[in-house]
Amino acid sequence: MKPESIQKYRAFPAVDLSDRQWPDRMITHSPAWCSVDLRDGNQALPQPMSVEEKLEFFALLCRVGFKEIEIGFPSAADTEFEFCRRLIEEDLIPDDVTIQILVQTREHLIRRSFEAIDGAKRAIVHVYNSTSPLQRRVTFGDASRDDICALAIDGVKLVKELVPSVPNTEIILQYSPESFSDTELDFALACCNEVIDIWEPTPEKKMVINLPDTVQWTTPNIHADMIEWMGRYLARRDSVMISLHTHNDRGTGIAATELGLMAGADRVEGTLFGNGERTGNLDIVNVALNMNSHGIETGLDFSNLPELREVYERVTRMSVGERHPYAGELVFTAFSGSHQDAIKKGLDRRKRELQEDADLAWGVPYLTIDPQDIGRSYEAIIRINSQSGKGGVAWVLDREHGLELPKTMHPQVGKRIYDLADELGRELTIDEIRDAFYDLFANVKSPMAVTDYELVHHTVEKGMVDCTAAIVVAGVAQNIEGTGNGPINAFVKALENAGLKNFHLTDYRSHAVRGGSDANAAAYVQLSHDDGCTLWGCGIDPSIEMAGLKALVCAANLLSEKVAL
Predict the structure, then answer these.
(1) Which of 238, 256, 317, 540 is the most exposed, fewest CB within 10 Å of its CB?
(2) What is the residue extent of each domain of the chain?
């Protein structure tokens, strides 16, 4: 901002809580969770969900494991009322799920809400009224504290009066001093305690006091101070669930919630992927998976996050950002060469160590959780652009195409592949990486190619092999012969007999190509020239012997680009 603009803003006051306890606490268990996707999330959509879409989303939330779901504001619109009635009349609410409805502390809206929930097994009636000085002054025309508190008192008295009108429905009260985040603490406490005294909750039949961070005005530590302060002075604390409902105006909704839990909150409201007004509500997926990453069970199942994201994006017509924690397309992706190398080494080492310790704790550089635990595959972890390194290319060829390159081949292949990405100025797809490898390093047939071969194993001199091969060199066909202590060595001798010398075979590896239906074999041959130049070549063929010969020819061809054989 310009200096003159900054003058209009003021710092948010701190809470007088010198003996605060929350900084020394840790989150050790899960709170009660309440999804508000179908109310707070839905009301913020440019195109709200239809009844059918809300029914699909409700079923999804139940499968995830939410036991409390705010289904809407049934007194506000016919669509909301109809949705509530369909859930009840069509028996779509699981026995262990409690629906929650929101209503302002206004008589006709409360009465309409009771009509909506009649017949539900259990329902949370969530009443609220704004309490902050800004709301009292602007929205309610300089209303006094007593006027605002009276709204809460009258509303809760009516709710209590109407409970007998729905005899088959267990009613749980939830009260929110809306805009708690900028309400004077003593006034928020006074309103909440008046409501608690009227409702008379017990440890066996608790009520909910929801303390919404309706608009984020300050840092998460002050929010935690406010929650701890309220927890100290609320009446009948053992009979009250303190609930958090944070928004994300300052980008700290998750931090505010986590510190609020450390400050003593019992319950959390939020949405999948943080949908909601302005910058959104708390992202429950994020907070729950943060807990999972510390070994805390949450009761919520996000093991198939891609499916949840698909349903969410389809019915809300919103999108999950590429860098969105856990769910974003790129959050488990490394482009940096050093990161790729560390991830590959970490996963390879973990695979080995798990053979000795099945309970080994997760620990892979740059990956806070195992992507497979939330339905993400390893295929997107390492992606290749001009910033990538040798290890990343080898990872993709191994994991995606079943090619286990020898480690000393990685630098040779990695440089050529990321030079290609640099030339194109973009990321390479996994198929482009495979195609580039095949073009540059596998079965290279120029200037030399092997077209046929025959191997005869000695019956008397065991281990010795005679090799007869047909090759083409610079367009000229010729037959060569040689004898060696194995197929590859015999072929080398045949090449030497034909005058192709000055190189030495220094390494050979082979394996079956994984994941393909052609059952190909891959072979890798390293050749060194007398002048010290060393290069690898790869051969791929259904025959393991032919794959080895092709690898040797390929390496010789690549070496010929560097030196004259």
Answers:
(1) 238
(2) 27-316, 337-441, 448-562
Count Cα atoms within 13 angstroms, Cβ side, for 274. 24
CA-angle at 192, arms to 191 and 193, nearest 5°: 95
Largest CA distance in the chain: 110
Strands, E assignment, 408-499: 448-457, 465-473, 476-484
The 3-state DSSP class for residue 465 equals strand
Yes or no: say if 561 and 523 are a contact pair by the CB < 8 Å rule.
no
Residue type, 287: V
User: Which residue reads 């929801």 in tokens?
Assistant: 210
Per-residue pLDDT for 336 more than 90? no
DSSP label at 15?
P
Residue 399 near residue 439, CB atoms below 8 Å: no
Cα 121 from Cα 93, distance rounded (Å)? 9
Q: Cα(398)–Cα(401) distance, rounded to whole angstroms?
A: 6
Beta pairing, strands 521-529 & 503-512: antiparallel
C-beta of residue 449 within 8 angstroms of C-beta of residue 495:
no
Would you identify the CATH topology of the domain 448-562?
Answer: Double Stranded RNA Binding Domain (3.30.160)
Task: Kindly give, in sequence order, each residue whose CB lies less than 8 Å from that of residue 25, ignoring residues fewer than 6 positions away.
Answer: 262, 263
Cβ pair 555, 447 in contact under 8 A: no
Cβ atoms within 10 Å, residue 516: 11
385 pLDDT tier (thresholds 50, 70, 90)? low
**pLDDT at residue 63, as a whole number:** 98
Q: Which fold has domain 337-441?
A: Helix Hairpins (1.10.287)
320 CB burial (10 A radius; 0-12, 13-18, 19+): buried
Q: What angle do CA 269, 150, 156 make, to 5 degrees?
A: 50
288 neighbors 301 (Cβ within 8 angstroms): no
Note the pLDDT of residue 462: 75
Domain at 27-316, CATH homologous superfamily: Aldolase class I (3.20.20.70)
Instruction: Tell me the pLDDT tens digit for each residue of 198-226.
Output: 999 999 999 999 999 999 999 999 999 99
What is the arithmetic mean of pLDDT over 533-549? 92
Q: Quick one: tokens of 397?
A: 């060829």
Judged on CB neighbours under 10 Å (0-12, 13-18, 19+), 107 is exposed
Q: Which position has the token pair 């809206």? A: 109
Residue 488 to residue 508: CA distance in whole angstroms: 9
Q: What is the CA radius of gyration of the chain?
A: 34
pLDDT (0 to 100) of residue 340: 75
- pLDDT beyond 80 at 516: no
